[in-house]
Amino acid sequence: MTQSMLFCVRSLTLRIMDVVSDVLRVARVRGTLGACVEAGGRWAVAGEDSSAAGLHAITAGEAWLTRAGHSPLRLDAGDVVLLAAGVSYVLGDAPASPVTACDPVELARVRRTGEAVRLGTSAPDTRIITITYESDCDRTLKTQLLFALPELMHVQGSTGAGGLDDTVRMLGRELAHPQIATTTVLASLIDIALIQVLRAWLPTRAGERRGTWLGMMGDLVVHRALQHLHADPARQWTTESLAAAVAASRSTLTRRFSAAVGLAPAAYLTRWRLDVAASRLRTTDQPVESIAAAVGYNSAPAFSRAFTRSHGAPPGRYRTMCRPS
């Protein structure tokens, strides 16, 4: 294959965008390093009631995670859990250990300085790295990865998820031994950790993701269809043209797309177009007419009506609301 042909192949691959990365970008998902916990003896701490998803990586020792209505879950060194936003839970040395309230002033101080939060009645033998993930966008966005997550995702260190293991080890080393540009390195590792959790967990949980946005992970035909829709939302797609693009029959695509994602292809495309438009309204000064055309609307009034139904405000007002005052 010639160099020019290789360039064309690479360019095509880049244009057919990675769907997960695309959704994370449009929803502006941001990760923040939370408290690094060092605990020993008897200890327990309640999870914050937050709009953010929370990741906990056990880097040493063990811990128990308890949730109302569920059996306690033992976490060993190397285990990682990702809890959806709004989930109440307790982490401790045992399921029945009494919860100790954290001083919010002290917690804010150690987060600011990078110190570890010390918990328990004896010298630390358990270490936990905590990360929070939330979207900078309003919840009118329909294709948001964080809102599609199950209540709990547990990746055991014994599964050999090498990418996740490596990421957690690098986080631990960077926190223990800060160097030049540690803040930049940590920011990248925090983003990578979320992807590595998804990579490790999703292939083993097909039944739990079907009927949600994550359902496309288990069906190659659906995944390819979504790649085409994301790469070219302005195209006047029909079920027939999309089926032809992924080498499937119209009935097969409709059945498998609806089963995996929970929506028909046309309904998903409408949601995605309007979410992309919302992102552009928030982050650019492009005229509304240009944004409408870029996401497949030939009529600005038709776009405005659809956007208002989806996001609760006309495009111009939405842009004003989302911009800093």
Would you summarize the structure shown here?
The chain is α+β, with helices and mostly antiparallel strands. The chain has 14 helices and 10 strands.
What topology emerges from the helices and strands here?
Blueprint: H1 3-15, H2 19-27, E1 29-40, E2 44-46, E3 53-60, E4 62-66, E5 73-76, E6 80-83, E7 90-92, H3 104-113, E8 117-120, E9 126-135, H4 145-148, E10 152-155, H5 162-176, H6 182-201, H7 206-209, H8 220-231, H9 239-245, H10 250-261, H11 265-283, H12 288-294, H13 300-311, H14 315-322
Helix pairs in contact: 5-6, 9-10, 11-13
Distance between the termini: 54 Å
Helicity level: 40-55%
The third-level CATH topology of the largest domain is Jelly Rolls
Structural class: alpha+beta
Instruction: Give the rounded overall mean pLDDT.
Output: 85
What is the tally of helical segments?
Answer: 14
Low-confidence stretches: 4-17
> How many distinct domains?
2
The order of strands across the largest sheet is 8-1-9-3-6-10
**CATH superfamily (homologous) name of the largest domain:** Jelly Rolls
Please give the CATH class of the largest domain. Answer: Mainly Beta
Which second-level CATH architecture of the largest domain applies?
Sandwich
Shape: globular
Query: What percent strand?
Result: 15-25%
Our Rg estimate from Cα atoms comes to 22 Å
Profile the largest sheet.
6 strands, mixed
Order of helices and strands: HHEEEEEEEHEEHEHHHHHHHHHH
Task: Tell me the number of strands.
Answer: 10
